[in-house]
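The freezer alarm interrupted the setup, so I double-checked each line after restarting. Inputs confirmed:
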Amino acid sequence: MRHSRRWLVIGTALLFSVHGSLAAQSGDTLVHVGKGAPSPSAATIADALRQVARHGQVLVHAGVYAESTLVILKPVRITGKPGAILDGQGARGLVIVNSDSVELRGLTFRNTGSSHTDDRAAVRIFESIACVVAQNRFESTFFALHLQRVDGCIVRENTMQGLAGSQSTTGNGVHVWSSRNVQVEHNTITGHRDGIYFEFSRQASARQNVVTESLRYGLHFMFSDSCAYESNRFVANRSGVAVMYAKHVRIADNLFSDARNSASYGLLLKEINDSQIVGNDFLNNTIAVHLEGANRNHVSGNRFEANGWAMRLLADAQENQIRDNSFFRNVFDLSTNSQSHFSTVRGNYWDRYRGYDLDRDGVGDVPHAPVRLFALVVERAPAALLLVRSAVADALDLLERIAPTLTPATLLDQAPRMRATVRAPSAQLVPARRSNERAP
Amino acid sequence: MLILAVLRAQVAELSRNRWVLSYTVLLAVLTEALYQLSGSAPRALSGLLNVVLLLVPLVITVFGVVYWHTSREFTELLLAQPLPRRALWCGLYLGLTIPLVLAYAVGITLPLLLHRELTAAIAPLLAMYLLVGTALTLCFAAIALWIGATQDDRLKALGLALGIWFAATVLYDGLVVWFATVYSDWPLEKPMLALMFANPVDLARTVLMLQLDSAALMGYTGAVLANVLGGYRGALATITALALWILLPALAAGRSFVKKDF
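Predicted 3D structure, all chains:
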């Protein structure tokens, strides 16, 4: 019912815009909104939108605007002065955009309330090209930003604060569905269901975002090929980050930390193929990286520190290259569920390595077996985890190191590094760096 | 008053005992070495885990049994006096345990104190180590006195002490791992927890581990574990269990001492 009413609103507005398009040619290029604003001015944003010319600007002065949902059907810039607030009064979405070249900047969107029947969003943009949503604040919104079939949109420097509560009473921060070339950059996203969500999208990128305390995933994408996720920080999201069913993805220089929960993953890779996972930091996660059915990926130059499991490489993950990573103080560096496996693990630094380097070439002379026997025991019998710090577990590991019988014989690092390649042990929350700052 | 007199005599004697002093020095040296190797107090304490869990029960049971036999003549002399046996036993027990607890506390705290690492950040962890070490000392000292009271043969007593230590620290865990692997298809969280509570060394380790490796533990077994052991209720359960692990051996030992025909 609510759906149909909204489409009716949009439909009516469409009609009006077609009708008014001739008049719009002569509209004002700048319309002010708000009390005491200089002329030409309008009392409400909706009026201003009718009044403004195509590609014109609506300048919203400080004040709380609790209008009915704004429908934008022509190219326009809406800019908020400090203190310009659009309030949904807990009952509705705030802006619906179905036009190319719409820009929303400097506004505060708040109080959409939650909805179980529709994906209510503070700002919904659909079937548009080249939209810009920048420097806005989203406070207590269900979905903050909902993009649907858009191309070339830019989302940057926004601050998004979700409703918190439970998974079902909050929506996603940035939700991108079936879109192309969307750039999500420098946003701060807290307390949403999924911080950033991509589905059926291509050539999208997420850079330098900070996503924390999501109720589900910090970053969640599915069926989204050829996307890049770089220099983001995903911290303390309830289920970490899960990415699925995509290929040619680049995940670089991000920080994944504090995904500590049952079924929580720093980065879960399910059926991710031909992708790069490079130069990331994994800190304090229950399971830092979990590869399941993920093939031909390059996992290199990452740093794993103080995780429960640094990496779980299941037997159905094949032909992955695990190289030049550094492992520090993890309870288990590597774990697998099978005797046989089909990935290459080589040239990593393991703080557990007890070998030597007689020829001083920086590479250990004896191979390193990164799978602790006790990791296999735990894989078979998770309850044995209670004994992970017992003398028996140490004894089993020692025996296995002397005479390997159970750990996968092929899962050896033939050229373990004597020194970490990445960085010195870090403090908490290192800011993610650009790839060109990294030492070779 | 009599019990205090016995206690004071024992404490005074044991505090000068070179074995107790060596125990302190050993713990201090190990803590210092781990601190130097790992470079930070929390990591040193983390490395100290198995030292505490293996060394403390070993030293306490063996030393307790030896102590019983060396001070046997003194005990018999005291028994000749008009003293209630129960009071005498309490004096012996506390006289044995107080210096050992102090030795332990000084041994692991002193190196950290000297390095000015006694900060608020490690206080909860250190407090846990002190609590757990004290509980293990009290528990295994009671077991040692029980062995003493029931085994007159010095060699047999020593053998029994070593056997109990080995069973509690190594054998038991081996069996538990075997059990967990064999019955891995069953939901094992609760039986495993019961097994952890049924051995003071495992209980001690579980309590300490929650302070150390919680990242790993919050994995799949984590939910049950966190529910049972986490928070206020968990602290109550573990402290009660540790108290029972002191009380039961102490009662058993006291009983066999009272009933013993010297």
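Quick read of the result. The interface with chain A takes residues 49-50, 53-54, 169-170, 173-174, 176-177, 180-181, 183-184, 188-189, 191-193, 196, 202, 205-206, 208-209, 212-223, 225 of chain B (CB under 8 Å).
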